[in-house]
Write a structure and sequence with these properties.
With about 270 residues, the protein is of the alpha/beta class. The chain is built from 12 helices and 8 strands. The chain has an 8-stranded mixed β-sheet with strand order 1-2-4-3-5-6-7-8, with helices on both faces. GO terms for molecular function: hydrolase activity.
Amino acid sequence: MDEWRLGETFDGPTGAVRWNRLGDPAAPPVALLHGTPFSSYVWRAIARALARRFQVFVWDMPGYGASEMRDGQDVSLAAQGRAFRALLDHWGLPEPLVVAHDFGGAVALRAHLLHGARYRRLALVDPVALAPWGSPFFRLVGAHAPVFEQLPPALHGALVREYIASASGPGLHPATLERLVAPWLGEPGQAAFYRQIAQADRRFTDEVQERYGAIDLPVLVCWGEDDTWIPVARGHDLAARIPGARLRLIAGAGHLVQEDAPAELTAALLDFLS
């Protein structure tokens, strides 16, 4: 698992972005977007599987994973949408296939609807797309981020572990959990964890959710049936708002479908993207 490395850097509008490319450069391009509080690491298995047919681009959003974390950084959905649009230009991808999870779903939707990013197809996996969103814990931390930021490191680490673990239905492998927690530890990571929650404002989805009916491209909505972070009913609602969207429910999976049911999700994506 320690072999997952993002060896390239792009100086984006809100900080340095670490990214990588897998697969044949001549193959159709696919861009993968992670959610919060995760990183591109959650896509590792699926990215490698997709790379047998596609050129796969993975990246850590500014303020996440291996990308730049700094005081005063704008890591809001608005900033991430602009960062993704700039990254597509940097990659030279005028119309890629896009797969986006959680917070990344809102980033992909904003980049498309507000910033002119064009996609051949869009797959949304348990996305943040319709208000209200955010668990009671998420909203509590968002309202009191400066207080939580002062937690002793050991207590902060325990809180982050429990929070990330709750995204999985059957439970995460201990090594996987530690890898997902690691970017949020230490002084920069602890501050970055609460910064991204404090900036998670529902107005950034309110700005676009009434435009979903104007989306004119093939869309697949995948949802873990056991998602406790965003109820599966939200998946039915989202698919109904997007003309022609297909809904694929994945049994036995929680919010972190990539970890809970990677084979089922990979199969669904291969069928849709191909």
